[in-house]
Design brief:
GO molecular function: DNA binding; transposase activity
Number of strands: 2
Distance between the termini: 26 Å
InterPro entries: Transp_IS110-like_N (IPR002525), Transpos_IS110 (IPR047650)
Organism: Verminephrobacter eiseniae (strain EF01-2)
Structural class: mainly alpha
Strand content: 5-15%
Number of domains: 1
Strand order of the largest sheet: 1-2
Pfam families: DEDD_Tnp_IS110
Protein name: Transposase IS110-like N-terminal domain-containing protein
């Protein structure tokens, strides 16, 4: 599923903040689409997210666990969303 069609899906709740790990640029299109849809987006350093997970006792690395730990990281560390458009910041 592409990001534009995923953003069109009906949802019951809109998140206060979407946190993505920086992945060498692979997060760029997702972050731009989420931001264009009106969501606050924070792109965080994967080392910080992993250190947080390790401190919480999460030693395994799975997609499900990563999602849970990123959500906990967002609640605990409260990373700041990008104030300006991600696309403009790069361009």
């Amino acid at each position: 599923m592409c990001w534009s069609s995923a953003m069109a899906l009906p949802n019951r709740r809109s998140p206060a903040l979407v946190v993505l790990e920086a992945t060498g640029g692979y997060e760029f299109e997702a972050a731009c689409a989420l931001q264009a849809a009106g969501l606050d987006v924070a792109v965080v350093n994967p080392r910080q997210a992993r250190d947080f997970a390790r401190a919480m006792g999460a030693l395994a690395k799975t997609d499900s666990l990563d999602a849970k730990m990123l959500a906990a990281f967002a609640r605990g560390a409260a990373p700041a969303p990008r104030a300006q458009s991600i696309r403009q910041a790069v361009g």
